[in-house]
Amino acid sequence: MRKMIMRLAVGAALASFAGAALAQNFDDPKEFQAAKDLLAMQPQGPADKPWEQNLGGKEVDTSKYKKSGPYRVCFSNAGVDNPWRVVGWTNMQAQVEVLKSDIKSFTVADAEGKDDKQISDINSFVSSGNCDILIVSPNTTAALTPAVEAACQKLPVVVFDRGVLTQCPVTFINPIGGYGWGIQTANFIVSKLPKGGKVLALRILPGVDVLETRWSAANRIFKENGVQVVGAEFTNGDNAKTKSIVEDYINRFGKIDAVWMDAGATAVAALEAFEDAGQPYPIITGEDQEDFLMKWKAKNLTAMAPTYPTYQWRTPIIAAVKILKGEPVIGPTWKLPQPVIMQTDLDKYVDDKMPPLHYAMCGCKDLPGYPQRWGGK
Amino acid sequence: MTLVLDQRRPASRALALARKVNVAVIVFLVLYLAIGLLQPTYFEPAGLMNFLRRAAPLAILSAGQLFVLASGGFDLSVGSLITLTVIGGSMLTANDPSRTWWAIAALYGVGLAVGLINGAVVAFLKTPSIIATLGTLLSVNGAAMMWSGGAPRGYLPDNFRMFGRLVLHDVPIVKIFPIAIAVLAVCGALAYWGFHGAVFGRRILAVGDNPRAAELSGVRVRSVRIGVFVISALAAVTAGIMLGGFGGVSVDVGLGLELQSIAACVVGGVQLMGGRGSVTGAIAGALTLFALFTLLTLLGLPQPLKETAQGLILIAAVALGAWRRRRAV
């Protein structure tokens, strides 16, 4: 038994080292400030089509890629291994249908979350000669960079969602990102929290850049405002585990005033822990999943839903066609607005006809096949 | 002879008694003590009740897995069957409370079918159970994903969720009483009767020990094999109903539970490859495992390190059990 405790102690010491080493990479004050500036910016472009808008971007000339249509579009997808990607992928297919007069073929390779598969997918697209343009949603940033660089030599490339470490793609499309998410959510909690209130942070898992930055930005704001964060726990995105953790915290502290989440898939489970303990609902930041929005509306919560909008899956298709027509596009980085859902516009997004983990900020209502294509009724 | 021994070493009788206590019970008590020291609410009746409520699905699953392990097999399909139960429950009920009861009946029907298929493949096609149930794992998981389209498509009504979620308040002595604990008690009693009370249990051990010898002495080995897989599958459906009740619908709810249930049994002194095991051991093993998860969460270790620690502690616990058995012989 003593050995076991020793082992645990050593483990704990190692863990704190690892934690410190990781934290620095994901807590960059410059990036934090950049996200803050982007949030303050007025988006340019059609207001009713945020997927065509941009934040402070410049147009790049694409006349050298001009070709006669219709075009053969190829897409190397990191995977469709979570509900967010399922919704995004559905958006993208529907967008292709919208532009079918310009798109002769849309060929897809699903890397199933594996870097090596995606690298070979990209290589075979490039060597096949059957692609006029290549869209890439990278699985991981560093590993995919060489493959994307090689592809840039042969044909125009559009990258979206996660980035790569090269400027060679015609454009890299993504929303403001993790720091923006952290700023939006933490500011909301700070504005609503009673004095001395306790905040519980729930995170999916450590070490993923988009999630780490959400937390580092939020934590920075909590610290700046002297907010008491009683715990930051990893849930693995599991409902049962989330609920157990929240129950433990309620037991331990008697009352939790706010719950901050780095992703909303388990938000309803977290809220149920308060129901089961007979406690009032906390202030909560979830995400734009329908189950959370419905709960928010039904129970009249003090809540907000940040988004990592799935409508960004529409933009690469639109950009690809524009590039091949030789029309200018925003580049080399195209920042999309990253809206939040607040109490005032909740009704616009709640829809009990859609499945629980449908992402309301999909920008998909005007797309063909809505809502059945997205699993709605 | 025994008398003489006892006179020479008066402590040995107490020691012999201590050896009879399942090692998992001792490890569990130690771990629970550590949890309580870190988080005193666990020493209160409500804390203990909540702990048991959350551990109940794994305990039931392990009690089912015990039957298969003791017969010399493995059931790897239980985790995916849990996922199918939760997804299927939400699809069949479509959030309509009046459909709950037939949905539960249908889910047990699915469980029965999966168990029969597992058992039949092992018994008649002579496929090693680890391969047969791996195949079932993949097909059942595929069926769940196809049915749901990869993301939850609905909710579970409250009366379906009752078994994992409902807690009675203001109960004397324990203050709160989760329904899940009653389900655990019933399932535990059934498993105890089936394994230790009925002849069936002795046949399982005989088959696990030496199938050929069992067959020669008149045990119908095939029906025993099919029986244990059916029991394990029904336990998985029960655990699925409880997990869906506790946490709601998600597509990865059963992920990894097959290995956890096997680990729980091994910690509880159940012998892989069959021939030895007890229901007390399986349930105590599950509680131990769950206490370990809880403790590591309370310590706040990062996930990768937690998994490493988990593995090491599991190996240590199993080694301790094996060592004690060697000493006891």
Task: Please describe the structure with a list of short key phrases separated by commas or semicolons.
heterodimer; A: about 375 residues; Rossmann fold; 2 domains; 6-stranded parallel beta sheet; 6-stranded mixed beta sheet; B: about 325 residues; mainly alpha; two-stranded antiparallel ribbon
Structural account:
The complex is a heterodimer of chains A (377) and B (329). Chain A is an alpha/beta fold and 377 residues long. Chain A has two domains: 50-176 and 309-338, Rossmann fold, CATH 3.40.50; 178-306, Rossmann fold. Chain A has helices at 2-25, 29-40, 83-98, 115-128, 141-154, 178-192, 209-224, 239-253, 267-276, 290-299, 315-324, 346-349, and strands at 58-60, 71-77, 103-110, 133-137, 157-160, 171-175, 198-203, 228-234, 258-261, 283-285, 303-306, 329-331, 333-336, 340-341. In chain A, strand 4, helix 5 (141-154) and strand 5 (157-160) form a beta-alpha-beta unit. In chain A, helix 4 (115-128) runs parallel beside helix 5 (141-154) and helix 8 (239-253) crosses helix 9 (267-276). The longest helix of chain A has 24 residues, at 2-25. The radius of gyration of chain A is 22 Å and the shape is elongated. Helix content of chain B is 75%, strand content 3%. A two-stranded antiparallel ribbon of chain B has the order 1-2. In chain B, strand 1 (167-171) and strand 2 (175-178) form a beta hairpin. In chain B, 52% of the residues are buried. Chain A binds chain B through residues 1, 3-4, 7-8, 11-12, 14-15, 18-19, 80, 83, 86, 205-206, 233-234, 236-245, 247-248, 251-252, 265, 268-269, 272, 276, 278, 291, 355-358, 375, and chain B through 30, 39, 41, 46-47, 50, 54, 149-155, 165, 167, 169, 243, 246-250, 252-253, 294, 297-303, 305, 308-309, 312-313, 316.
- The low-confidence parts of chain A are 1-24
Overall shape of chain B: it is globular
Instruction: Report the radius of gyration of chain A as a whole number of Å.
Output: 22 Å
**Major sheet details of chain A:** 6 strands, parallel
Number of domains of chain A: 2
Mean pLDDT of chain A: 90
What's the tally of helices of chain B? 15
Give the uncertain stretches of chain B in residue-range form: 1-8
**How much helical structure, as a percent, in the residues of chain B?**
over 70%
Mean pLDDT of chain B: 88
CATH superfamily grouping of the largest domain in chain A: Response regulator
Largest sheet of chain B: 2 strands, antiparallel
